């Protein structure tokens, strides 16, 4: 987390945006088409993650069992056992010109990820979110009037306190999970899943993703997707959030074109990750002041506040602000469901049916029609 301190101190404030207009104006009455995935039939993600079910002859091991964790890489993420189908899909996307040839960054001590000379992180061809460049299609803002709930870095021991609170308040959040944390804390994972919260991807080992090669980016995302897939009855995650908010045109293209993932950033940052550090850069009082400013301020655009289930203090910072959320009339939903669309690529949510990844399969029932209003 220390490197995030560096990141937070050095990142320039929001400077300019490639696309300053929120693309989320049509978030009601969206509905998945019956018998197809969220992605078009031609998208490679269809063949990379296969759902469980009688027709496939696949059953998944119980979450937390030795069979369940078998075959997944330790930290750091392994390139050795990556499925060839993932690599083939990546290389096909590169050959088709779908993955921009942006060089990897380096992270000099005490500095943000840095591009080689000649590459401007604010240029459209690079567009680094670390430098606050917004790529159209990535999510930074919530719909007007909405506070979209999400928490990063779990599952971890402080998570159950948060989950109990959310359940008590009748709320569902999106959890951007770290793959190795799911392996280490399966009981916490199960608690969020049983609450029918939405599970999304925060990578396998929490690196600065622009420092990674194409294959490493694929591994960080793919292994996390595979573990969530295996642990949620075959659901394929639809959203990911880059650690430290560090992505660019190359990284987001791998996520989108190979794995079907949409990138989610945020538009307000509490720095709550530092609360449990030896020298925190914020405090509960300071966060309370920030929250008051944001929650009593403009509702256009809606809020996506970066928060963590990293420590008891960071969970407390969220719970302390809840009364303000209610008293100021914010509509609330998980980040994954804020567009009124599905939380997963092949399923509406934790309780809806999981669609077959087979074109023409008639066994899939259409999902329920839902609106963003009804998901609060
Ligand atoms: Zn994180």
TrEMBL record:
GO cellular component: plasma membrane; side of membrane
Keyword Protein biosynthesis annotated: no
Coarse class of the protein's main subcellular location: membrane
EC annotation from Swiss-Prot or TrEMBL: 3.5.1.41
Top-level taxon of the source organism: Eukaryota
Locations listed in the record: Cell membrane
Native organism taxonomy: Eukaryota, Fungi, Dikarya, Basidiomycota, Agaricomycotina
NodB homology domain span: 145-333
Gene Ontology MF: a single term: chitin deacetylase activity
Cited Pfam families: Polysacc_deac_1
A Gene Ontology BP annotation from the UniProt entry: cell wall organization
Topology of this chain in the membrane: Lipid-anchor; GPI-anchor
Alphabetical keyword list: Carbohydrate metabolism, Cell membrane, Cell wall biogenesis/degradation, Chitin degradation, Cobalt, Glycoprotein, GPI-anchor, Lipoprotein, Membrane, Polysaccharide degradation, Signal
Cofactor list: Co(2+)
Protein name per UniProt: chitin deacetylase
Enzymatic reactions: [(1->4)-N-acetyl-beta-D-glucosaminyl](n) + n H2O = chitosan + n acetate
InterPro entries in alphabetical order: Glyco_hydro/deAcase_b/a-brl, NODB_dom, Polysacc_deacetylase_ArnD
